Amino acid sequence: MPAPRFVERLNEQVGHELAAHNQYLACAIHYDGLTLPQMAAYFYTQALEERSHALMMVQYLLDTDSEVAIPTIAAPVSSFDGVVAPVELALEQENRVTTQVSELLVIARDESDFASEQFLQWFIKEQVEEVASMSDLLAVVRRNADVVENIEEYVAREGGLEGDDPSAPRAAGG
Fold first, then answer.
1. What pLDDT digit, counting tens, does each position of 99-118 carry?
2. What domains sit in the chain, N to C, each tagged with a CATH number?
3. pLDDT averaged over every residue in the chain
4. Rounded distance, CA 70 to CA 73, Å?
5. Mean pLDDT, residues 158-167
6. What is the distance between the alpha carbons of residues 127 and 99, in angstroms, rounded to a whole number?
7. Are 101 and 124 within 8 A, CB to CB?
8. CA dihedral in degrees (144, 148, 150, 156; nearest 10)?
9. Which helix or strand (DSSP H or E) is residue 165 part of?
10. CA–CA dist 14, 27 (Å, integer)
11. pLDDT per position as a tens digit, 126-136
């Protein structure tokens, strides 16, 4: 069974992942409103991915007979100016999640909770990929803020997410 301190913080992380889902959903709706279908699709997909991360964490808690306590989450930012601001916010969010996952890993190590440490390895790898792809997207969006067609073309060409990762933890409900 995971250390109690780890369980408490993983439940908090479930909330952070669900908040990220809602934030990406708000970004997608913003881009949909601007008639940028590639950007909207990218963020709708990102939203589903964050929800999946939350459910992977829920499944781990269930698998280890730990309490699952879904925390309250704050409303997302839903009003943006232009095309750059949502991606800037998304990169900030990915950097914050990277820090949160790293803090979870430290707790698992401090508690000699080897199973939880192993569980987190996939999330560490995932965050490296998420920060890199969002950083690239932000660079493109900043360079092309006045030519949104270039942004749409980039996302259509490069923004596709890879398929299912067979090494990903199982998600609850899946």
1. 999 999 999 999 999 999 99
2. 4-158 (1.20.1260.10)
3. 95
4. 9
5. 73
6. 9
7. yes
8. 130
9. none
10. 20
11. 999 999 999 99
